[in-house]
Amino acid sequence: MVTRAKSVCRHAGCGVLVDVSGHCDKHAAIYQKAVDARRGSASERGYNRRWQKARETFLNRSPLCVQCDREGVVQAAQVVDHIVAHKGDAALFWDTSNWQSLCKPHHDRKTATADGGFGRTSAA
């Protein structure tokens, strides 16, 4: 099995080698805190009680993961995904034609790749 060479922690001045590109354990927590502070809380981003009720209604009406369905698999959805990232646009956030039901693995994969999720900036 081929293994990847270690890389240096991205934190300025830190020379710790890490197995995956990014930050060492010490600096990962600091970096994540900074990302979270810029991003705001879930409630500040619109994911409040109103969203929870709308999400629940949408999942009741569309209970299966649309991506699994495309792959010929029947899987319950747990997440209502914004097809096009709303980036704070309230109209796009509440536009139900921009919503799709996804299972958590498909949502996480989409968020990490298409949206540049988990605190990273998008490649696009």
UniProtKB/TrEMBL annotation:
It comes from the Bacteria. Keywords: Endonuclease, Hydrolase, Nuclease. InterPro entries: HNH (IPR002711), HNH_nuc (IPR003615). One of its GO terms (molecular function) is endonuclease activity. Signal peptide: none annotated. Residues 53-108 form the HNH nuclease domain. Belongs to the HNH nuclease family. This is Putative HNH nuclease YajD. The lineage of its organism: Bacteria, Pseudomonadati, Pseudomonadota, Betaproteobacteria, Burkholderiales.
